[in-house]
Predict the 3D structure of the following.
Amino acid sequence: MIWWNNLLLKTSKRNRRKRNKIASRKPKSVSRNQELTQSPVAIEEEEEGFSLKASTCWVQPLGNFYFSSSPHNSRNSGLGSLQILTDELVLEILGVLGATDLGILSTVSKSFYVLCNHEPLWRNLVLEGLGGGFSFDWSWKSTHVSAYMPNFDVSSMGSLSLKVRDFYSDYLFQSWLCANLEMKPEWLERDNIQRRTGISVNEFVANFEEPNKPVLLEGCLDNWAALGKWERDYLVEVCGDVRFSVGPVEMKLEDFFRYSDQAREERPLYLFDPKFAEKVPILGSDYEVPVYFNEDLFCCLGNERPDYRWIIIGPAGSGSSFHIDPNSTSAWNAVIKGSKKWVLFPPDVVPPGVHPSPDGAEVACPVSIIEWFMNFYDATKTWKKKPIECVCKAGEVIFVPNGWWHLVINLEDSVAITQNFVSRRNLLNVLDFLNKPNASTLVSGTRDRVNLHDKFKNAIEASFPGCIDQLVMQSEEKKAEQKKLSFWESATDSKLSYKAEGMEDHVGDPYAGGMRLGSNLKIQPVCRKESWKSLKRFCDVAYRNELPGSMNKTYGVLRV
Ligand SMILES: O=C(O)CCC(=O)C(=O)O
């Protein structure tokens, strides 16, 4: 249950005080839930560390009902016998209705009025009915009305709407809050990624790609024409009428920009197009792959390679919720306009609030990125295994190593290019991934999921004979080397202060590659009294199984 301390009253009072300040900001019409967020002027609200983009939410969280002097919740009286259903279920049922039925039902009671005007219902109707061929007009409902009834003056819709003050619903309130909450400054504070400027390819490989660690590279886009050219006006001029993939639909770029300017949604639409360079060749020639990522073995597949590059455009608040990149590839993501907040967890740490299915084919996570920040971000503060975080700005590139979970939210209207690639460092991982028994559900970006492994392997053999065998041999040698090199040897070498289980306890570098401590490794107090050297000898013996089983159990658990 959510309780919001007099949000309605406080916001209303503040609206009067802040109107002037807001008037000077870039005008942004309120697009979402116009009936819930009545004011046509965006009002910034600062309350208990939260900044809100919009004005009043007339729906109140359920907690407020229990503190209210009035015993009346119009949500229940207006729903009649349907009141026993959850809001989610009622909305699910309303989701099967068409626009006319929703419109009629909304006149039945205050409750149906609020529910039938829930913006996501109208968003679905627009996207299902019109695909990407709509011109966004203030809200999804008015967009629908203006598309189907062009003579109706939708500008009057806001002023006709009702202010329902005694409707209490956590579901609707949370949805409004997530659409209207600004990122809190404390969510942006942590910046613990390694940054590098002007490093050599060898340094990149040795320090980041080989150990599979993220890095933010500065200054390597300086020669990109896109950086200077890709202003909105330029993009509209060269491809304003080209249709790009936007979620489930294809939209003209200029229509998408029109939508972005007004969007205030929990999950704004996001332009993410893998065929942009084929559609608009000049976009493809305005950038070049940074030198660190030049080796891309999927090139051997020619036109049969899976999708690998995308232009990404979205308004502030849009982004990508937690996922691991496809086909076990690594990626780079270059920001051309705007900025992006990144949160990354290494492959062996599932982020809080995220629940992958056992086969990894599906991931359940919070409805929106803001919801993740509201409900789960704080948990990471006390985790030993803290995420890597940063804000990546225009002109910067982030390297996302294979297998890392990541979430991204645009802090401003943003334009970026991302590419996924396979280098020698990652080839065996990718081949293993493509060869999994459930490849038909796991592999993505191509039609021929099942045969991709064999095609890729053959193409590599043809272009680089012996390459795979050599990599397999090197990997086996490395494993053998790691076994020989006992934990203690590495430990004494690396000025560390481990507390056994947590990666955070590595000095200075929470995700140092190579050796990981098994979670059942216990460094007993008795060990600490020993010198590192004698302890090392002791453990080497234990590791070679030369100690009796019981002692092995205590000291010999080196899962590296
Ligand atoms: O929204 C973004 O820029 C991030 C994209 C991303 O995570 C990906 O392509 O895997």
Residues 343 and 389 are 5 Å apart (CA to CA). Residues 485-555 form one domain.
